[in-house]
Every structure is written in structure tokens, then in C-alpha cells.
Amino acid sequence: MQLLQDRIRREGRVLPGEIIKVDGFLNHRVDTQLLGALADEFAKYFDTSKITLVLTAEASGIALATVCAQKYGVPLLFAKKAKSDNIEGGLYQSDVFSYTYKKKFTYIVSQEWLSADDHVLIIDDFMAKGNAMQGLVDLVNAAGATLEGIGVAVEKGFQGGGDLFRRLGVPYKALAVIDRVDGTDLFFRED
Amino acid sequence: MQLLQDRIRREGRVLPGEIIKVDGFLNHRVDTQLLGALADEFAKYFDTSKITLVLTAEASGIALATVCAQKYGVPLLFAKKAKSDNIEGGLYQSDVFSYTYKKKFTYIVSQEWLSADDHVLIIDDFMAKGNAMQGLVDLVNAAGATLEGIGVAVEKGFQGGGDLFRRLGVPYKALAVIDRVDGTDLFFRED
Q1: Engineering a disulfide at B155: which of A125, A132, B60, B162 sits with its beta carbon 3.0 to 4.6 angstroms away?
Q2: Dihedral sign for Cα atoms in the order A103, A153, A63, B86
Q3: What chain A residue is nearest to B77 in terms of C-alpha separation?
Q4: Is A63 in contact with B77 (Cβ distance < 8 A)?
Q5: Is A120 in a helix, a strand, or coil?
Q6: What confidence tens digit (pLDDT) does each residue in A94-135 have?
Q7: Minimum-distance CB partner of A28 among B25, B28, B113
Q8: Closest chain A residue to the Cα of B75, Cα to Cα
Q9: Can you tell me whether residue B158 is helix, strand or coil?
Q10: Residue B89 burial (CB < 10 Å; 0-12/13-18/19+)?
Q11: Closest by Cβ to A32, choosing from B29, B75, B113
Q12: Mean pLDDT over each residue of chain B, to the nearest integer
């Protein structure tokens, strides 16, 4: 998506360790008009008439997923990061190893709000190795729900996560795929 | 706001310790159409033409604040909960004691995205004792920005937070104020 690529090129920053910082418009300060455009773009790739729920993960996925859910006329469900292993009953949970924070955490969603009847579109702001996304897919599977698609705003294509999910057999779309970082230069995969 | 009161009465649950659970439509599974109605209602109480930014706190405030920011045509900024005392530079920070989790945490926002030129509307989903809200107000003050108003979806009126901010001299609006809990019955303050 040209609009998003241009924005990343103009305002994104590359930090040591190939960290790509887009916190001025996507995941700290958030350009809500841009999110509307991203939600419209996702709608070209997914049959939004089939979905009953948009699923994302706290915290940085929530803004984008909210705008998507609102546009598609369905509820949003966000997986919470459990603070400890002391987790109450009635929850689906999945373990995730975070490379960013170098530790394991657990996503939880209430069984009350995700069921085998649901048709789920997962939306997240960022994908690197795909561990967090796998955690969300695990929650959908644990509930016996149907995964209708996976949408990601920015994919770090060189970290392999996107390719895992392209092989999964469900519609997958990343709106901007960064294939390579060279110093402070970003190289995008063409659509 | 009658719509929100009715929804809380119908779907909210009171848990031991006067905990009011609204996780089916406000802060876990989120009814995005309802959020649109809440954002429209807030706009009756605040001069949204004056604001440059909606500020909230991760994670549960983000969905509502996103819809508000989008409707008012301004960016959203969400304060992050710092994981440790090891916080990098270039940040405004405020310490908050959470009664829910019985521990202290720190809100941070990048100084890049909040400045003395900003006119800020704070939006959050819930208020009890007001500690988290005070943390957000502290961030606005640290930046020298102008606080234009505080909007809360659900206020637990009997825990005192709302009254602190009603005395602050800025427009304050809670869309549903629960004044008393008796067993599983909720008593709302009338507008």
C-alpha cells in the first residue's frame, strides 16, 4: 500500500538492531485518519461480510483493530497479556516468547467472548518473527473458531513471520512489507 | 447517558469487592458501535474544535479513545505502562499506584509526541479512585500542555476519583456514574 510505505519512509526511523520505529503514527501516537485508510485497504483482501469478530492483542494492535471492527460492523476482542502464571478459569490462553522483551508471556481471552461459532479476522500493527501472531492463531484454534484471515499493517519481511502465515492457507495480507534494512534505508517488497 | 446505563444494567456484572465487570462490551470484547455513540456523547460536553490530541492509557482505554480521536479529527496518544524502572530518556513519566493490581507502575509518553502547544482531551474507559487518571493529568502537566477536558465512560462514583477531577476546574464528564452497589444491584447517579 503506497500510502503506508510513503508514511514509513517519511516518518519511520531505523534503530540499531533493525528496529523500525513508527511510533509517531502507528503505535504510540496514532494517526486515526490513516487507520481508517488501512481498514479500507484490508477490506479489499478479506471477505468482511463473513467475519463475526476482529481479534487483536494488547496494547499496540488495539487502535487499528478497533477502526477495522467498527468499519466492518463487528465487535473487537483484544487478547490480554497475563501478568503471571496465576490465571483464573474460563480462559483460552497461549504462550508467546517475545524477542523484543526476551521473555515469555501469556495471551488470554475469556471463553465467554470467543466460541466455535466465530469467524475471526486477526488484525495487528506489526509482525516480525510471528510469535505474537501465532499466539493469536492458537487462541482461535483453542476456541474451535474459524480463522478467516490475518491482516498486518507493517511486516518485517526479513524476519520470516509473514512467510509462516502465507503458508497457512488462510488469506493473509500485510499492507507494507519491509524486505531489507540497510543503515537507515528501507527497502519495501512491491505488491 | 441512558444507553450506557442500560447496557451496564443488562450486561454488566458485579463481582466480590465491588468490581464491576463490563468486559463484554467495553474493555475486553468491545462493541465498536457503542463506542461511536459514546464518542458522540462526549462531543456534547467538550469543545472538540479546540483539542489537538486525545490522550489515554494502555490498554483498555485505547479502543474508546481511538474512536473519539477519529471522530474529532485529531491523533490519539496512548501512555504506555513501563515494564521497569529502567526507562530511556526523552520521556515524560508519572508514577501510579494501582489498587487493582496492588502495585506501582509508571506511565510514559515520548516527549516527541506531547508538547506545550497541545490542547489535550483525556479519555478513559473507567475510573475508580482516580489514580490512573491523575497519572495522565501529570503527563499533560509535565509537558506544559493545556488540559481541555476529561471524559470517562464509567465512573465508580463511590470511590471518589470523579469528585477529585470535578474540582480540577476543567470540563469533566462521566457518561455513567455508579453511585452505589448493593449485592448485584447497581444504582446510577442521574444526570
Answers
A1: B162
A2: positive
A3: A29
A4: no
A5: strand
A6: 999 887 778 899 999 999 999 999 999 999 999 999 999 999
A7: B113
A8: A31
A9: helix
A10: exposed
A11: B75
A12: 94
Q: Does A83 touch chain B (CB under 8 A)?
A: yes
Q: Does A184 touch chain B (CB under 8 A)?
A: no
Query: Does any CB of chain A come closer than 8 Å to the CB of residue B84?
Result: no
**Regarding beta strands A76-82 and A103-110, do their DSSP bridges make them parallel or antiparallel, or are they unpaired?**
antiparallel
- β pairing state of A29-30 and A53-57: unpaired
CB within 8 Å: A63 and B78: yes
Smallest CA–CA distance from B112 into chain A, residue: A24
Average pLDDT over residues B58-65: 96
A2-188 is classed CATH 3.40.50.2020? yes
CB contacts < 8 A (A, B): 102
DSSP string for B57-100: ETTTTHHHHHHHHHHHT--EEEEEEESSS---SSEEEEEEEETT
Among A13, A22, A32, most B C-beta atoms within 10 A, so best to mutate, is: A32
Q: Taking residues A165-181, report their average pLDDT.
A: 95
| Mean per-residue pLDDT of chain A | 94
Give the CA count within 13 Å in the CB-facing half-sphere of B177. Answer: 17
| DSSP label of A15 | E
**In chain A, what residues touch B75 (CB-CB under 8 Å)?**
25, 29-32
- Helices A32-42/A62-72 angle, 10° precision: 60
Given a contact cutoff of 8 angstroms between Cβ atoms, the answer to whether B177 and B163 are in contact is no
Q: How far apart are CA A112 and CA A46, in angstroms?
A: 25
**Any CB–CB contact under 8 A between B55 and chain A?**
no
Residues in chain A: 191
pTM: 0.96
Query: Rounded CA gap, A159 and A178, in Å?
Result: 10
Burial of residue A189 (CB within 10 Å: 0-12, 13-18, 19+) is middle
